[in-house]
């Protein structure tokens, strides 16, 4: 049994689906179901006794204690977070509450639970903290990619809150000996990505005939990884990562935003041409830049590749093609997310 937090979000739900596709080890999935949590992502697991969903907050210590005592997990995989940089700029409070205070509560609950284990169960316990490359700050064009020893220089309320959580996790290892591992991953994309983030927003807006808003000059660089490859990296680190270590996760795929947007447009042009025969690229609109916008992220994933033998399965070309195809085939999912209907569905299932 493993406990996953945030398993109804974008990466968490992909992780839970992949986990249960490859193993019979059950999952307790603790998720608050904020605007970003969507149980529709996990609809294929309805009635599957290996998936035990609990709606709740990682900040709720009593609930955490109860879940740990009841399910006795051998590991915690911690995804739950407020994840969107733009939202953190407009309202940082929730980011501190969930990403920092919530992680603190989870660490403390894990420490109490782990302290009560003995023998192999104690030795084998793991707390895997899922984090981001944004904690390292921003790179100049000529800088080498981020390694695990890069300074922490977070620039947004989101990245500052994640950096704080990474520091807490590190401290719980050094001070209390809690068996932790941390992953710092680059930008993910793929199925179930909430359409407030660049790639799904561009697909959804393009199909709806809306503008494709590109911040600033569109030359900011992100390093993209297909979500299933992030999930396989997490599984590998959980299995074999050295305690107290951090592992960067990325697919060596740096691209300027404007290229990403044009690439998405050209795939849509081929797969779902506009009625007027024009390209979706006609809808691109340069808009005001994001405050404090990091210029470039790039992940050096050699530690994970060499030490643990991990490799991504998808190239950017194959991953983005699958992603566009998935959105074209799941317009009902998009409609529900945009209307907020998925919350009604959840309420009915778990009333
Ligand atoms: P997401 O916003 O799609 O999902 C977050 C999930 O956490 C949602 O299901 C939400 O309901 C849940 N949640 C939020 N607050 C909670 C709370 N207080 N208690 C319990 N559940 C709560 O995020 P995501 O993109 O899937 O990211 C998951 C994790 O991966 C985050 O920790 C994020 O920092 C990290 N990460 C994301 C990316 C990326 O590109 N998306 C890259 C690297 C790391
Ligand atoms: O690097 C990992 C991080 O990637 C994760 O830790 C975050 O949780 C995740 O949200 C993501 O953060 P970004 O800020 O990089 O992702 P976002 O999709 O919001 O933006 C990607 C880039 O595209 C960024 O440079 C801003 C730009 N952008 C974004 C949106 C939503 C636009 O130009 N237009 C847009 O409408």
TrEMBL record:
Its cofactor is NAD(+). Residues 3-323 form the NAD(P)-binding domain. GO terms for biological process: nucleotide-sugar metabolic process. It comes from the Bacteria. NCBIfam families: dTDP_gluc_dehyt. Belongs to the NAD(P)-dependent epimerase/dehydratase family. dTDP-glucose dehydratase subfamily. PANTHER family: DTDP-D-GLUCOSE 4,6-DEHYDRATASE-RELATED. This is dTDP-glucose 4,6-dehydratase. It comes from Comamonas piscis.
């Amino acid at each position: 049994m493993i406990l996953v937090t945030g398993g109804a979000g974008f990466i968490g739900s992909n992780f839970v689906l992949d986990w249960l596709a490859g193993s019979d080890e059950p999952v307790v999935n603790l998720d608050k179901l904020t605007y970003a949590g969507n149980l529709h992502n996990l609809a294929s697991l309805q009635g599957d006794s290996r998936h035990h969903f609990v709606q709740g907050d990682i900040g709720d210590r009593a609930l955490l204690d109860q879940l740990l005592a009841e399910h006795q997990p051998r590991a915690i995989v911690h995804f739950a977070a407020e994840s969107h940089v733009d939202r953190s700029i407009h309202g940082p409070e929730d980011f501190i509450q969930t990403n920092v205070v919530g992680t603190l509560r989870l660490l403390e609950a894990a420490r109490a639970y782990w302290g009560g284990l003995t023998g192999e169960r104690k030795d084998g316990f793991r707390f895997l903290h899922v984090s981001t490359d944004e904690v390292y700050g921003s790179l100049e064009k000529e800088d080498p990619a981020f390694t695990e020893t890069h300074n922490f220089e977070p620039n947004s309320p989101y990245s500052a809150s994640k950096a704080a959580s990474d520091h807490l996790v590190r401290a719980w290892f050094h001070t209390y000996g809690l068996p932790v591992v941390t992953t710092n991953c680059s930008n993910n994309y793929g199925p179930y990505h909430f359409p407030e983030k660049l790639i799904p927003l561009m697909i959804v807006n393009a199909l709806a005939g809306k503008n494709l808003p590109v911040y600033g000059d569109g030359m900011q660089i992100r390093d993209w990884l297909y979500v299933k490859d992030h999930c396989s990296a997490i599984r590998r680190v959980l299995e074999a990562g050295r305690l107290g270590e951090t592992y960067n996760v990325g697919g060596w795929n740096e691209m300027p935003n404007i290229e990403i947007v044009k690439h998405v447009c050209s795939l849509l042009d081929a797969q779902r041409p506009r009625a007027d025969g024009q390209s979706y690229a006609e809808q691109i609109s340069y808009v005001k830049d994001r405050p404090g916008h990091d210029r470039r992220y790039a992940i050096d994933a050699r530690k994970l590749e060499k030490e643990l033998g991990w490799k991504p399965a998808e190239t950017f070309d194959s991953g983005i093609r699958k992603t566009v195809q998935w959105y074209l085939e799941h317009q009902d999912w998009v409609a529900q997310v945009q209307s907020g209907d998925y919350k009604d569905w959840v309420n009915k299932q778990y009333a």
